[in-house]
Design goal:
Blueprint (H helix, E strand, L loop, with lengths): L1 H7 L21 H6 L7 H9 L5 H8 L2 H9 L1 H4 L7 H12 L7 H10 L3 H7 L3 H12 L10 H20 L15 H14 L4 H14 L2 H4 L13 H14 L7 H15 L3 H5 L1 H27 L5 H9 L5 H14 L4 H33 L19 E6 L4 H11 L3 E9 L6 H7 L8 E6 L2 E6 L2 E2 L3 H12 L3 E5 L13 E5 L15 H20 L4 E6 L4 E2 L7 E3 L7 E2 L4 E2 L6 E5 L10 E5 L3 E3 L8 E2 L5 H4 E9 L8 E5 L7 E8 L9 E7 L2 E2 L3 E3 L5 E7 L10 E8 L5 E8 L5
Parallel strand pairs: 1-7, 1-8, 6-7, 10-15
Antiparallel strand pairs: 2-17, 3-4, 4-5, 8-17, 9-16, 11-12, 12-14, 13-14, 18-19, 19-23, 20-21, 20-22, 20-24, 24-25
Length: 749
């Protein structure tokens, strides 16, 4: 204290008041007594003497009879009082702020903490504030003494009910008379704002859900709520979504036959509800609204696209409508998303909402692609896929090329979205080489492929040659690229990119998983597998940006048709004589209703003959029909994406370390993440901890938030604990392992 005072006023000029909040050992203020006046005052007397504070019985009880209040208030005086007038009301609010752990008094924040946390009655009683808090609530909510519970648990329930039901009656005013304990205006509107704050707080959402469910049961809201336009915007209770789900189901016939009559209204309702709070909290509700929204949008846009396609003539017109920013590729992406969502739906919902959407999507695939094939038959087919490698030769910056199997145009647009702002991507359409299969498509993406690919049929198989060299299989194509790159480049698999040394590589080529068999494409045999594949590529792209690659290119060998199980294609009779017949193409044969063309007619060397079914049709072959089809002529199969990207700014994320307290003694392991970077411009990093297949939630560490604690439920209830575990700290966006610790395990129970 002396050093601080002498630093501020070394000659002790002016008037100084030194308050010592408790008795000290020795005479700490002796030197200052020689220069001034010693006053024996407690904190309340000091405030009275120096600030002309009127001493009241309430302040006497709070400050004189409870010295801890005085001490805490003195320590936080500048923060809590500052330049405010120190009257009784101001001091009481400051003490309430201390009790609720606030930096300044905020009634709304205090109410929310009271609703979400526990043991406030004991804390407030110790400070002499419990009755004051009760009166504060009475005044704000308009309750009488008898209407205000004196027990903390009962009071909390009533406060929660008053808040949440205030928001409900805003959207359903007809039920307001049932809840006489709601606050009057304008406080009722403030209550609505507090409820939104509560729902939006990630720390308090669990408490919100518990309170909302309890209030919903207590007041039997599911029995009293009725549908209204305003209710579509309400998020307060789960019962609102459940009511709307029932209403939507009742609006559509058992077999979905009137779906077309209801589709506009279904789209409006689902659009509003799919992002609501309970849709995010309850997977069943969320999946329902997402599926209805996707089905309605798919139905509407497919019908529109069919009408537009009937007026198109040229090949380029079809390509333009397919690949523009709001183009027909969206329909294919919605179909994949709908297929992923429908698994979680009950059979009734599939019949009513999904089946009509599939029927319209099938019409779209058949009608639009038939018209597209007719345009190709008139104009011919000019593949531009050969020219991809020319893009890699621009500039001297570090470059990385991703060659991805079956990255359809819609998935490329999704990939751009998942990468985010780290890379500025332009997505361009390329026309693929036909047949649109891996063997030919991947060969057409090799360096110097623009000099011409030759296709022949030898010893019962298709052979693809470039400059006379066989490049039909994966290993041969990889060798070709490695020779082209030389010592300054490297070829790696997608799952190797984080494990190999790429520090001095100027041109890196990354090959994704592919299936080297005619007409075969699986992607985990489910649309969700495709979306996960894109997420893995997006992680690798962000990783490459972090590692200093400036120019990033991504290209695919071919696209595919997605034919859901309830979306049957047309069947075309396969030729009696052919070299090979697959669902979407035939080599060495002709068939009625198909486009038949020689190799030279599709940009290849050789005299092989190809036949392609038009529209959404496949050759009638034995065996189960595949869900994913490729090899044929359609917008989805033969218009492939090329993403040309530039890293916007060097991405420097904050460095982090993992701290583990050993031994791990619980099935819930807690670890600490700490920032290590001293670079003030380092970007925040989203991280998660992982033990085996178990992961923590994601948190963000930054130069402002330098520490975070993560919890991992890593051991199932009846599993035997191991003697030790490996804990990994991962970048949540790139999947990169940032730190790793081995920890001993000692669980007693």
């Amino acid at each position: 204290m002396r050093f601080e005072l002498e630093d501020r006023a070394p000659d002790l000029t002016g008037r100084w008041l030194i308050y010592v909040p408790e008795r000290t050992a020795g005479n700490l203020a002796q030197d200052f007594e020689l220069l001034g006046e010693r006053l024996e005052m407690d904190f309340l007397a000091l405030l009275q003497n120096r600030l002309n504070l009127a001493v009241t019985p309430k302040l006497t009880d709070l400050l004189r009879n409870r010295p801890n209040n005085a001490k805490d208030l003195a320590n936080k005086w500048d923060t809590l009082i500052g330049g405010k007038t120190a009257d009784e009301a101001t001091l009481v609010k400051a003490l309430l702020a201390l009790a609720f752990g606030l930096l300044s008094w905020d009634f709304g924040e205090a109410v929310l903490r009271f609703c979400c946390e526990r043991n406030f009655q004991n804390q407030l009683n110790e400070r002499g504030l419990w009755q004051i808090w009760l009166q504060t609530l009475r005044d704000w909510f308009g309750w009488s003494d008898t209407e205000t519970p004196d027990d903390e648990t009962a009071l909390r329930k009533k406060v929660c009910s008053a808040l949440l039901l205030s928001e409900l009656v805003k959207f359903a005013p007809s039920v307001a008379d049932r809840f006489p304990f709601l606050p009057p205006e304008p406080n009722r509107q403030i209550a609505c704002e507090l409820v939104r704050r509560w729902r939006d707080s990630t720390n308090w959402q669990l408490a919100y859900c518990e309170a909302a469910n309890e209030i919903e049961r207590q007041h039997e809201l599911s029995k009293i709520l009725v549908i209204s336009e305003d209710l579509l915007n309400a998020e307060t209770f789960r019962a609102i979504d459940e009511l709307l789900v029932r209403e939507v189901r009742n609006a559509v016939h058992f077999d979905g036959s009137n779906f077309s009559d209801k589709v506009d209204r279904l789209s409006q309702v689902a659009q509003k509800r799919k992002g609501s709070f309970w849709s995010r909290q309850d997977e069943t509700i969320g999946n329902f609204w997402e599926a209805v929204d996707l089905a309605a949008n798919l139905w509407q846009r497919c019908k529109e696209a069919i009408g537009v396609s009937e007026r198109l003539q040229g090949v380029n017109e079809f390509i333009k409508h397919y690949n523009r920013s709001d183009g027909w590729w969206q329909l294919d992406f919605w179909a994949l998303q709908l297929a992923a969502k429908q698994i979680a739906l009950i059979d009734e919902d599939k019949r009513k909402f999904v089946m009509p959407a599939w029927a319209m999507y099938r019409r779209f695939l058949d009608s639009v692609n038939s018209a597209f094939a007719n345009a190709v038959e008139k104009e011919g087919w000019q593949p531009t896929q050969f020219n991809f490698w020319q893009e890699t030769r621009h500039g001297r910056e570090r470059r990385i090329v991703f060659i991805v199997d079956a990255l359809r145009f819609d998935l490329a647009m999704y990939l751009r979205e998942k990468v985010g702002n780290a890379v500025n991507f332009e997505v361009r359409p390329l026309t693929s080489v036909l047949p649109s299969i891996t063997e030919i498509g991947m060969a057409s993406l090799l360096p110097n492929a623009n000099e011409g690919l030759e296709v022949t049929w030898e010893v019962g198989k298709l052979v693809v040659r470039l400059k006379g060299e066989d490049v039909s299989n994966r290993s041969r194509r990889k060798s070709w690229i490695e020779r082209f790159l030389g010592e300054s480049g490297k070829v790696v698999e997608l799952d190797e990119i984080q494990r190999v040394d790429i520090g001095n590589v100027s041109l890196l080529v990354v090959l994704s998983r592919e299936v080297d068999e005619f007409g075969t494409f699986a992607a985990d045999l489910h649309p969700q597998g495709l979306l996960e594949m894109v997420n893995r590529i997006a992680q690798a792209v962000r990783f490459a940006a972090e590692k200093g690659f400036s120019r990033i290119l991504i290209v695919s060998d071919h696209g595919f048709l997605f034919a859901p199980p309830d979306c049957e294609p047309n069947f075309v009779q396969s030729p009696s004589k052919s070299l090979i017949a697959k669902r979407r193409f035939v080599i060495g044969g002709k068939s009625e209703g198909c486009w038949t063309v020689s190799a030279s007619g599709v940009g290849l060397k050789g005299d092989l003959l190809f036949a392609f079914p038009k529209g959404f049709a496949v050759f009638a072959l034995r065996g189960e029909r595949e869900v994913f089809l490729h090899g044929g002529l359609s917008l989805q199969e033969s218009i492939v994406p090329m993403l040309v990207g530039q890293v916007t700014t060097p991405v420097v994320k904050i460095a982090v370390r993992l701290h583990v307290q050993e031994p791990i003694s619980s099935r819930i392991a807690k670890v600490t993440v700490e920032a290590q970077s001293d670079n003030p411009f380092a970007q925040p990093r989203k991280v998660k901890a992982q033990i085996g297949s178990h992961e923590s939630d994601i948190c963000e560490v930054s130069t402002q938030q330098t520490k975070a604690e993560l919890s991992i439920v890593w051991l199932d209830e009846f599993d035997e604990p191991p003697s030790s575990v490996v804990i990994q700290l991962l970048d949540a966006e790139t999947g990169q392992v940032l730190d790793e610790k081995h920890a001993e395990v000692s669980i007693l129970v």
